[in-house]
Amino acid sequence: MNTSLKGKVALVTGASRGIGRAIAERLSRDGVAVVVNYAAQADAAQKLVAAIESSGGKAFAIQADVGRVSEVVRLFDETIARFGKLDILVNNAGLMFTKPVSAMSEAEFDRIFAVNVKGVFFACQQAATRLAAGGRIINVSSSTTARMMPNYAAYVATKGAVEQLTRSLAGELGPRGITVNVISPGPTETELFTAGKTAEQIKQFAAAAALGRLGQPAEIADVVAFLASDAAGWITGQNLRVNGGIA
Predict the structure, then answer these.
(1) For residue 228, what is the domain's CATH number?
(2) Residue 69 — left, alpha, or beta (φ > 0 → left; ψ -120 to 50 → alpha)?
(3) Interval 164-207: pLDDT, tens
(4) Which of 60, 155, 193, 205 does the annotation list as catalytic?
């Protein structure tokens, strides 16, 4: 348990399921009050809040589409109105779909960039002035940015943008003691990842890792909790590839 996190407030975007849910659960166990942001999964978000509260934690769900700037601003307004401050921002919300470049429509391109890049950028903009001094911003990228994977062009373009934003923002917010880092998970066993994949495809993804298996959401959450803690206070502008040594 990271005792340095007790009493902190965190906003986790896209927290109703998968990796985001695991992050919210882990931070709560460390004594963090958690805002569970969701776009459409209201039932899942409320169940997560109930589970956190039943374990003695503090949580609150807020619906917001991070692809819309006005909703990002509202998300921060409601977070601070609820808990009085914000110490940790985890930009986890994201879209992923794969298509050849030749088949990508303008509407699809605009939507994936709206959520994956615009949402992260403007959440960071809000955090730049509203996050407590000494706070933490943790962005979520993907290990696909370091691989040559057909049909991932739009997705990796968005995640590459997030990685570069992280580096620049780390320098910008350093004077306030705010660290900005990005994590790049490898294939992780979530509903989103396994949907539409055959057992053989999943096996191939697992075999690509040096450790020979898929990651678990809790393993990603552990790294987020570390980066949010005092123990990571000298780490900023870095990309941690949490991927089991994927080739």
Answers:
(1) 3.40.50.720
(2) alpha
(3) 999 999 999 999 999 999 999 999 999 878 888 899 999 999 99
(4) 155
